[in-house]
Amino acid sequence: MRLIKDRTREYESFHKSLQYFSKSSEVKGDLKLLSFENHRSNQNLLEKYSFFMQNLTSFQKRAREAKNLLDIHSLTQEFIRRILQSKEVEIFLFSDTNRHLIPVNKNANPNHINSVNKAYSEGILEWVFESKKPTVVPDLNSYTINGSKVNQMIFPIYDAQTKYGVLSVYTSSVKISDDSLENSSIQIILGIIVPIIVSLRQKNSINKLYQELQVYQSKVHNDFDVNAIGNMAEGIIEEIGTPLQVILSLSDLIENDYPKIDKEITEKIKKQVNKVTELTNRLTKFADLNKPANKNAQPCQLNKLVKEFRNVLNATLQNLGMECELDLEENIPPILTDPNDIKQLLTSLFSLLKSATKRNGAFIIQTKYIKERVVLSVFTTEQIEGLNSEGENKSTVTVKLIHDLMRKNEGSAEFNVLPLKGTIIHLIFPLKRKLVL
Fold first, then answer.
1. Which of 6-10, 204-208, 331-335 has the highest mean pLDDT?
2. Is position 364 within any domain?
3. Whether the Cβ atoms of residue 342 and residue 305 lie closer than 8 Å to each other
4. Co-location of 259 and 333 in the same domain
5. pLDDT of 150 strictly over 50
6. What CATH number did the domain enclosing 192 receive?
7. How many Å apart are CA 73 and CA 63, to the nearest integer?
C-alpha cells in the first residue's frame, strides 16, 4: 500500500520506485538497496554500461591490429582517458635484468619515470603485485595544505607467473574502488594487452635472433674461402722455408767448391731467395697480427672460479677478520671468456672491499642467470666511497680496470652505494659473444 499526500503534485510510478531493490534472500522477505553509483534512473545506468561496453569492444578490435608496443601504448592511453580524467598515462615494462622499469613511450615525462622507479626501489610495487589491486600514491610535488591536486594511480600488469610492468596514471581521482565499473574496465583492458605485449616481445626477440643468425651465416659464408686460402697459404709458407734454406746452402757450397764460378750468378740467386724470404716473413707477421684477440677465450664455469678464488683467499680473510659467504645459483650456463680475466676481476673487487671493510666485516658473492646474462654480484654493508661519482670513478685505477675488463668481455659493471645499506656491485656477462674470425 502506498500513501499519497493530497498536496503532492507528482510522484514516481510504483514499478520505478522498486528498480533498485531486490530480495536479500529467498527465506527472508526483506528488500535491500542495490548501489549503482548514484544513478537516478535505469536509463542512465544502461547508458553508462553501454558506453563502457562500446569502449571495450572498440579497444579489443583495435588492439588486435596493433603492430608494435608503441601502438598498444597509444591505444591504451586513449581509452584510459575516456574512463578516468587523466593527465598522463604511461605503460612501464621491466628491463631484461628486472632492475628497472622502462616506459614504452620514449617521450615520457622524466619525473614520471623517476617516480615509478622510485616506487619500485622502495618496495611499493612489490606490495602492488602482491595485492593485485590499484594503488594511489600522492604526488608530493603538487601537495598543498588542502591535499594533493594530482595522484599517481598504479595498476599492475601481470599474468599467472610473470610480472611484466605497471600502468601508471596521473589523475585527480583520490581513490578507485575495487568493485567500481572504472576499475573493472581498466582490468579488462590490461587483460587484453598482456598477451599482445608477450607476443610482440617474443616476436621482437625472435627477429633479433634471426637477424644475428643471418649476420653470422653471411660472415661465415663470406670468410670461408678467404679463411681456407689463408690456412693453405700458411702451410705453403712453412714448406717454402726449407727449400729456400737449401738453395742458400747450395749457393755457398758452389762458391766454396768451384772458385772459378762467376760469383755474380750466385749473388743473384741469393738476392732472389732473400726477396722470397722477406715476403714470407711479412705474410707470417700479418697472420700473427690478425689472429683473434680473445684467443684464450673458452667456456668458463663462473661458480667454479669463484669457489677457487674464495679458497685461495681463506687465509687472507682470517688474518683480516673478514667473512665471505657464497650464494651461487646452480646449473648456470658457462660464459665465453678468458679465465684470467675473471681472476683479475675478482682480485680487483677484493681490493675494493679490503680498503673499505673494517675488521669483523663481511661480504657476499652471488651468481645468477637472468635472461641470457650471467650476473656476478657482490654485496657488502660497508659504503665504498666514490663509486657513485662519475668523476671519481675515472680517477680510480681499480674501478677503471674493472670497466675495461668488462668491456673486453662485452659486458658491463654497475656500482651502487646505498645510504645506510651498503654497496652493491654487479658484473654482467653476456651469454652470447660476437663472432670474431
1. 331-335
2. yes
3. yes
4. no
5. yes
6. 3.30.450.40
7. 10
Band of pLDDT at residue 285, cut at 50, 70 and 90: low
Per the listing, cell 567500481 goes with: 180
Question: How far is the C-alpha of 221 from the C-alpha of 165, rounded, in Å?
Answer: 41
Cell reading at 17: 520506485
Cα 364–368–371 angle (5° rounding)? 150
Same domain, 175 and 65: yes
Would the pLDDT of 268 be above 60? yes
Band (pLDDT 50/70/90 cuts) for residue 21 is very low
Task: Indicate whether 157 and 196 sit together in one domain.
Answer: yes
User: pLDDT by residue (tens digit) across 70-86?
Assistant: 888 888 888 888 888 88
Highest mean pLDDT among 20-29, 80-89, 428-437: 80-89
Domain extent for 233: 218-289
Helices (H), 28-107: 42-63, 69-83
Percent of the chain past pLDDT 90, that is, above it, reads 8
Pull the grid cell for residue 198.
Answer: 608477450
Query: With 0-12 CB in 10 A as exposed, 13-18 as middle and 19+ as buried, what is 193?
Result: buried
The Cα 359–Cα 361 span in angstroms is: 5
Are 156 and 226 part of one and the same domain?
Answer: no
Q: What is the pTM of this model?
A: 0.49
**Residue 358 included in any domain:** yes
Q: Kindly state whether residues 117 and 259 are assigned to the same domain.
A: no
Single-letter amino acid, residue 301: Q
Residue ending a domain, choose from 175, 206, 237:
206
For residues 168 and 57, state if they share a domain: yes
Asked if 312 and 350 touch (Cβ cutoff 8 Å), the reply is no
Rg, C-alpha atoms of the chain: 36
Count: domains in the chain: 3
Asked whether residue 210 carries a pLDDT value surpassing 60, the answer given is yes
Residue environment code for 390-402, b if the CB has 16+ CB neighbours within 10 A, otherwise e: eeebeebeebeeb
d(CA 189, CA 137): 21
Is residue 118 classed as helix, strand or coil in its secondary structure?
helix
Same domain, 251 and 337: no
Are 179 and 309 contained in the same domain? Answer: no
Q: Measuring CA to CA, how many Å separate 246 from each of 19, 152, 258?
A: 115, 87, 18
In the structure grid, which three cell numbers stand for residue 287, read together?
697472420
Tens-digit pLDDT profile for residues 389-422: 444 444 477 888 898 889 988 899 998 888 777 8
